[in-house]
Prior knowledge:
Blueprint: E1 5-9, H1 10-22, E2 29-30, E3 32-33, H2 35-39, H3 43-53, E4 57-60, H4 63-73, E5 78-81, H5 90-95, E6 98-102, H6 105-114, E7 121-123, H7 135-145, E8 153-154, H8 166-179, E9 186-187, H9 191-196, E10 204-205, E11 224-236, E12 241-242, E13 248-249, E14 254-260, E15 276-279, E16 282-287, E17 294-298, E18 308-312, H10 318-324, H11 329-335, E19 341-345
Parallel strand pairs: 1-19, 2-10, 3-4, 4-5, 5-6, 6-7, 7-8, 8-9
Antiparallel strand pairs: 1-11, 11-14, 11-18, 12-13, 14-17, 15-16, 16-17
The chain binds pyridoxal-5'-phosphate.
Pyridoxal-5'-phosphate binds next to helix 9.
Amino acid sequence: MSTGRLTVDLDAVVANWRALDAMSGAEVQTAAVVKADGYGLGAGKVARALAAAGTRRFFVAVAEEGAALREALGPGPEISVFSGHMSGDTDMIHDLGLVPMLNSVEQVTRHLEALPGHPFGIQLDTGMNRLGMEPGEWSALRDILLPQNPRLIMSHLACADDPDHPMNHQQLSAFHDMTDGIDVPRSIAATGGILLGADYHFDLTRPGIGLYGGLPFEDAQTVVHLDLPVVQIRELSAGETVGYSNAWKAEQPARVATVSGGYADGLNRHLSNHAVMFHEDTPCPILGRVSMDLICVDITHIRDTPKALTMLSKQQTVDDLAEIAGTIGYEFLTQLGARYNRHYSRGRT
Ligand SMILES: *Cc1c(COP(=O)(O)O)cnc(C)c1O
């Protein structure tokens, strides 16, 4: 096998969903966000495992993702689309039974004209200024929309990963101002919002990153394990260099493994000379530049001849690598490339 092996532990995804679900009251529904192909891990596989465990509602970013998800899930689970009802989406929304979260007057008009009677939800802007109706638009439309039984009224928090940020409370109170007294299920919390506590739970929560083992859900189980096969091992003499631009130089004799995987596989060049890989429990420093398809690793201190080295595991998580690479776990996960052999396990990775 010459490409990396990416293992996704579906039992860990389910356990993370159950743990997040248990943080809100029994009357609060916990949905699952599987946009961007389940944060890069495979939306169909993840969603089927979650549906079997009791998840009844899924969220995606765009209608095309909803269409693919419907194929994977079959009829039954509700699939909601954050980007709403965009031009060109009507057939997909209708034929595959998707529920668009309407974001603007334009989308409301399009939806009510093209698909009268078809279920929809409403997204409100409470200060993030990204998606959703502004308070003014909402007051103009609410008397038209509420009699049509929206499935959900939702908004999204800009700073939920920082529990002390005043924006959280500001958005919460804007959401109350716009929705109190309305008899429609409400939702404002993603993973970070769930951790903020019961005031943020309303009727439905929408975790994404926490399901996949990422921060801010610190107690998450590890979902992703990535092993890269060793292509070649060589002995270096003191003074020899490794990789592009001679970015690492051996001060002493060294043993270097070249593994298959690089920045084309989402292993960012910022990991060069900084991150480590693991041989069992032993860290092995990355030497020199990460190149497109290959990474060189110091195994001077390893006795055996490893067949593969581990990049992602409980010992070094997506968030650990994201921090070294100057990004966030969300980006690191969604960049994990198409070249890996993806395996889905039930149980420890
Ligand atoms: C991505 C997203 C979520 C899930 O957020 P996480 O931080 O991954 O839990 C929920 N709601 C909306 C509107 C989103 O865009």
